[in-house]
């Protein structure tokens, strides 16, 4: 029987949702920064309070019971509601809270944030950003669930529950090995890419699908047998002669200062670009501050990286 004298704690609900999302007690413990025994104890206490089992363990991992599945979405809404309640209280008390969870894609964050965070910190002395990397699909999901407060993601994003501020547009550079027939050209024509073997990242990355669309449009061949796990891996695969690639302009600017083994060029008459924007929940109490933050981000990107990207007006 459920214990009528107790109600689940926020911590227990958060633990429940995290385990359900990751299907693993071990990964959930790492994500939450707690020991696995402590996590197990809290889930057992939650199950005792509710009078039912939430998880079952199998070879496939930690799975939700039917009862757990029935309660999961409501638990997510409760967590999000309490987080927004706390955020609203902070806005009322201090104008805006000082710590935010920022999500960024791994193909953008390491090459953008070092250029903008110092200037952002000097403008907002009390601002703290807890940065996590994840593919855009998971970032948008995390925004809805309250795991992130704001995120920088590729546009367009067509979601009524999210507010979007465009930030900048980034070019994609065409990269070939030094001994490739197109090496030495500052620009290549779309017809010269027809039939080329193009490397890209694994399909869990949004960047993979962007490159796939480019290949379909230009008549190039996407190399599915050789897919990189990161932009650095992709770059090394080009160096080894496994194919050619498109790399984000900010990555090239940040990591390829002396690319003697590679040659970087532009696509003539049809430049390839990707747009990025700052996104947050439309209902967020700090939405006015997020819009202000987006404006300052555009200013900083223009000052620091205006020769690499095009900043939105």
UniProtKB/TrEMBL annotation:
<protein>
    <submittedName>
        <fullName>Hydrogen peroxide-inducible genes activator</fullName>
    </submittedName>
</protein>
<keyword id="KW-0010">Activator</keyword>
<dbReference type="InterPro" id="IPR005119">
    <property type="entry name" value="LysR_subst-bd"/>
</dbReference>
<keyword id="KW-0804">Transcription</keyword>
<dbReference type="InterPro" id="IPR000847">
    <property type="entry name" value="LysR_HTH_N"/>
</dbReference>
<dbReference type="Pfam" id="PF03466">
    <property type="entry name" value="LysR_substrate"/>
</dbReference>
<dbReference type="Pfam" id="PF00126">
    <property type="entry name" value="HTH_1"/>
</dbReference>
<keyword id="KW-0238">DNA-binding</keyword>
<keyword id="KW-0805">Transcription regulation</keyword>
<dbReference type="InterPro" id="IPR036390">
    <property type="entry name" value="WH_DNA-bd_sf"/>
</dbReference>
<comment type="similarity">
    <text>Belongs to the LysR transcriptional regulatory family.</text>
</comment>
<dbReference type="InterPro" id="IPR036388">
    <property type="entry name" value="WH-like_DNA-bd_sf"/>
</dbReference>
<feature type="domain" description="HTH lysR-type">
    <location>
        <begin position="8"/>
        <end position="65"/>
    </location>
</feature>
């Amino acid at each position: 029987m459920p214990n009528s004298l107790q109600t689940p704690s926020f911590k227990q609900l958060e633990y429940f949702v995290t385990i359900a999302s990751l299907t693993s007690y071990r990964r959930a413990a790492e994500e939450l920064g707690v020991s696995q025994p402590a996590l197990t104890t809290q889930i057992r206490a939650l199950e005792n309070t509710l009078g039912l089992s939430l998880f079952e363990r199998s070879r496939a991992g930690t799975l939700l019971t039917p009862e757990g599945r029935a309660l999961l979405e409501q638990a997510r809404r409760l967590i999000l509601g309490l987080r927004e309640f706390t955020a609203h209280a902070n806005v009322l008390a201090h104008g805006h809270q000082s710590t935010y969870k920022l999500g960024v894609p791994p193909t953008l964050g390491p090459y953008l944030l070092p250029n903008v965070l110092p200037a952002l910190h000097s403008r907002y002395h009390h601002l703290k950003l807890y940065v996590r990397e994840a593919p855009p699909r998971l970032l948008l999901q995390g925004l809805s669930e309250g795991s992130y407060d704001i995120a920088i993601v590729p546009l367009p994003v067509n979601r009524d529950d999210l507010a979007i501020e465009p930030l900048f547009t980034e070019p994609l550079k065409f990269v070939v090995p030094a001994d490739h027939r197109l090496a030495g050209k500052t620009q290549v024509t779309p017809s010269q890419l027809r039939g080329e073997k193009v490397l890209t990242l694994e399909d869990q990355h949004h960047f993979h699908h962007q490159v796939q669309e480019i290949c379909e449009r230009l008549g190039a061949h996407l190399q599915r047998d050789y897919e990189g796990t990161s932009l650095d891996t992709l770059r090394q695969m080009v160096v080894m002669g496994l194919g050619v690639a498109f790399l984000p302009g900010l990555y090239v600017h940040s990591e390829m200062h002396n690319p003697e083994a590679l040659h970087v060029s532009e696509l003539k008459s049809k430049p390839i670009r990707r747009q990025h924007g700052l996104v947050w929940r439309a209902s967020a109490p700090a939405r006015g501050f997020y819009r202000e933050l987006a404006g300052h981000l555009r200013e900083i990107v223009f000052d620091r990286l205006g020769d690499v990207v095009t900043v939105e007006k």
